[in-house]
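Action item from last week, closing it out:
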Amino acid sequence: MTILLYDLVGRDTTRPFSPHCWKVVMALAHKGLDISTVPTRFLEVPAVEGGVSKTVPVIRDGETVVADSFDIALYLDEAYPDRPTLFGGEGGKAMARFIERWSQVTIHPYVTTAAIMDLHAMQDAENAVYFRQSREQRLGKRLEEVMAAREAGLGNFRASLEPLRSTLFYQPF
């Protein structure tokens, strides 16, 4: 059976851009499961599977609907134990959760700063209005002001990646 993935897109439905959806695509590929994607714009998310989540990714696997990339990974390991594991046990789950939290706090804020205007430009007119309003409300400033901090924050961002660099010195990715 093919798993349905609601995947975040902008004006161009062939260019999904959500790193959270990408995690699910990679998990499904690792498991060797068939996937069908539903290109989903921001304003379409509230209607996905009857409003099960305010965000994507969301998957439908038969009668089961799961939202959130980490919850989806947990579900896939439980539902498909005969396929390659995503975590390799409880220790792997704990480490994956740590890495997810670390990236959310360390990587995502700067990437948001660096990419916000590009993400805005990817939207159709209606979704661009939504994107601007929701992000400006969340960030407390205009998108242009957020992006203006990109160069000033680059040095700190690069320094914050040092734990990752030093880990890769000792072991391959």
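Closing note: The chain has a mean pLDDT of 96.
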